[in-house]
Design brief:
With 414 residues, this protein is an alpha+beta fold. The chain contains seven helices and eleven strands. Helix 2 runs antiparallel to helix 3.
């Protein structure tokens, strides 16, 4: 049974006419939309610029590839380093553009959030008014409502309009619910963009360090070779000889120690079965050179047999897994290479290079996470070795004495 009066009916008619206007449009909404359109245009322009920069980077990568196929010479190596420097500089520029793009995207999302919140506030007020009036008129007696009309035709016309009002009420309620869902989605996207911005900002700082390292590598090479092709050829021979000596020592020591430990059943008893995963030896997860990295500057002399993990000079370095320290190389000069070799079960061994200070002792059992030394790699410091361009840890994983990709074994906790 319906219980409505003429005054309420008349008010409802006017309310129905105004409801779509109040619920779905407002001058501020048009302003926000225009501002968002401007921001989207700026975002599009930034994205096009990023594509141009990335295209230029690819061109330099191709130049580097071509140079690497040519005969090794000082001039060729300098050209490769120059291309690397330009490439990293362009990458920095692209990263900055990406950061600015995210800023614009966040600004557009915040405008959308503000507009949606205002829309929700308007719709809540409309709904509250409707619910309050319906509740008030619902308490009227049927005889009072019928008496307010001149004829039954008018009465039933009022009923039809009231049903229209109820339909609009349901539509507005649904619209409010959708607006709230849209608002929640926009807020989630804004949070994700903020996280992406923070991550990209960290990457930018690391790329700036990469740039400094590349510039130093070029300058250091020119100083050590005195810009002479003959000096460069001699230097490469020394570098190759040192690498082969270190490689020979690591291989022979690893075989001897593993054979002795297996004969005594010491390794399996102390460490247990290798679970196939190694922990990261430092807090950093930023890799400056990968396993068999095609961009490694001395790849024509020898392959890069591990990964280089950026770590500030003096960062604690931890054992990636439990095992026995096969050797702990201590140096007293910068040209010498400090490193620690740990033998694990399952035919696995790990090497930690460019250490500034070695605290582990040969024939010592260490557990996963024990500090075995401190990172180095700063040019001119004790234990850094030759041709280092900045502080980092050189980390190797070997399976049955053969270097393998450490990323296959390191736990993916990043």
């Amino acid at each position: 049974m319906f219980r409505f009066r003429l005054p309420f009916f008349v008010f409802c008619l006017s309310f129905v006419a105004l409801l779509p206007f109040f619920a779905f449009s407002a001058p501020s909404e048009e302003t926000a939309t225009a501002e968002i359109d401007v921001l989207n245009q700026k975002i599009k322009e930034k994205q096009e610029k990023i594509k141009e920069i990335e295209s230029t980077i690819e061109a330099y990568k191709k130049q580097i590839t071509v140079k690497k196929t040519q005969a090794m010479s000082l001039s060729n190596q300098i050209a490769i380093l120059d291309n690397h420097i330009t490439q990293v500089n362009l990458d920095i520029e692209a990263t900055q553009e990406k950061l600015e793009t995210i800023e614009l995207e966040v600004e557009a999302l915040e405008l959308g959030i503000r507009d949606k919140e205002e829309d929700i506030t308007r719709q809540k007020k409309i709904l509250a008014g409707l619910i309050r009036m319906i509740h008030q008129e619902d308490n009227k007696h049927m005889l009072e409502i019928v008496a307010a009309y001149d004829s039954f035709s008018d009465f039933y016309g009022g009923i039809r309009h009231i049903r229209t009002l109820e339909k609009n009420l349901n539509t507005s309620t649904k619209s409010l619910r959708l607006a709230q869902m849209d608002l929640a989605e926009k807020k989630t996207k804004a949070e994700q963009k903020q996280e992406a911005y923070a991550s990209l900002a960290d990457t930018l700082e690391e790329r700036k360090k990469d740039f400094d390292s590349q510039v130093f590598a070029k300058e250091d090479l020119l100083v050590k070779t005195r810009s002479s092709e003959l000096e460069y050829a001699s230097l490469l021979q020394q570098l190759k000889a040192q690498y082969q000596a270190i490689e020979s020592d690591i291989s022979s020591i690893e075989r001897e120690v593993r054979k002795r430990l297996e004969a005594q059943d010491v390794l399996d008893e102390a460490e247990g079965t290798f679970d196939g995963q190694l922990s990261w030896p430092s807090q950093s997860r930023y890799i400056t050179a990968y396993f068999h990295d095609p961009n490694y500057p001395f790849r024509n002399v020898f392959e890069h047999s591990g990964i280089d993990i950026r770590a500030a000079h003096g960062t604690p370095i931890k054992a990636a897994g439990s095992g026995y320290v096969a050797t702990a190389k201590h140096c007293t000069v910068s040209s010498c290479y400090n490193y620690v070799l740990i033998v694990h079960t399952g035919g696995i061994s790990t090497v930690y290079g460019h250490l500034s200070n070695v605290t582990a002792v040969a024939d010592q059992f260490v557990t996963r996470g024990d500090i075995i030394g401190y990172s180095g790699g700063t040019p001119g410091t004790v234990g850094a070795g030759p041709f280092v361009t900045g502080p980092h840890l050189h980390f190797e994983v070997r399976k049955d004495g053969i270097p393998v990709n450490p990323l296959t074994y390191l736990v993916k906790d990043y």
